[in-house]
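Possible regression after last week's pipeline update?

I re-ran a chain I had predicted before the update to compare outputs. Posting the input and the new output here so someone can diff against the archived version. Not blocking, just want to make sure nothing changed silently.
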Amino acid sequence: MQTSLQIDSRFPQMGTTIFTVMSRMAAECGAVNLSQGFPDFQADPALFDAVHKHMCQGRNQYAPMAGMPELRQAISDKVAALYGPRYDVESEVTVTAGATQALFTAIAAFVRPGDEVIVFDPVYDSYVPTIETVGGKAVYARLQFPDYTPDWAQVAQLITPKTRMIVLNSPHNPTGSLLTAVDLDKLVELLRGTNIVVLSDEVYEHILFDGEKHASLCAHPELAERSIIVSSFGKTYHITGWKIGYVVSPAELMAEFRKVHQFNVFTVHTPSQLGLAEYMQDASRHLGLAGFYQEKRDFFRNLLAATPFELLPCRGTYFQLARYSAISDLPDRAFAEWMTREVGVAVIPVSVFHADGHDDRVVRFCFAKKEETLLAAAERLCKAFVKPR
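New output (post-update):
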């Protein structure tokens, strides 16, 4: 159907997300899809059984706006056990329809037209469109290649009276880098005496490698008092399609968050919340995630060791960056499309995460896949790029 309406697009430059583009291309070309960040294996059947039980018990009507009390209690208990502070179940914990909704809601609740929001470039693709949707302006601090560490002197220069919010993401998508306790100390020095709110995207909080510890803003008292902290059950329990996450923050900030949350989502699927609350009682299920994914990371890196890809450090998340300068001079988007069509492995070009399209000739692989998937991808990569002896 076509319309005769003349649409004056509010967002004429906003296109389709690269994840949709590359996954569609992968399907069309029959490529192994290591582009979009989702597991291709099942979650624990015990979680399905728990949700099914609550469905059969009739727990199928609206949950409270902030989330089922059982799940909010389990979240509060988990955060206290891992990071120290005890968030109040009634006023400081909210269950959301995934992390993306939580991020959108937080930005909409605090950012006004004309406000500036500092983000770190390369930046996960949902932040800036959300900032612009509510009339704010994204201001970019560049993470330093190849380790993707923040330059706090640069951040200090970017803070102005218009700065309303800083968005953090650690472990960082797409780069796999981490913020450290030292980074948080430097940040708090910059924020003292301001009313800047921090939005901390910590959806990969349990996926850190080589003994690294997650520097959650929950555990830093000065930052926690001004922070909205977001996490995701989808990333933790291999259920990205369920779209369930949560937010913790001080009551004053949460009250503002819920003003928006009640009207853009209101509530989240009841039996899934109850099943998650039950499943979370065994802490080994999230505490074992680092070891589980480190095995996959190491397995994948070993498979690619013979190729000309330069594998960059991966300290967290389930993404592996690789520089391909020894293979091709193509820009990274063209290289990713060529890889999908000609090699049969779909990846994400990292330049799409840069506001200015900056291109270091780096692509992103997702290794949250079954071994056979990773083996199939590696076989195609080695066939294309490893010369026979």
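Follow-up from reviewer: compared with the archived run. The first strand starts at residue 32 and ends at 33. Marking as no regression found.
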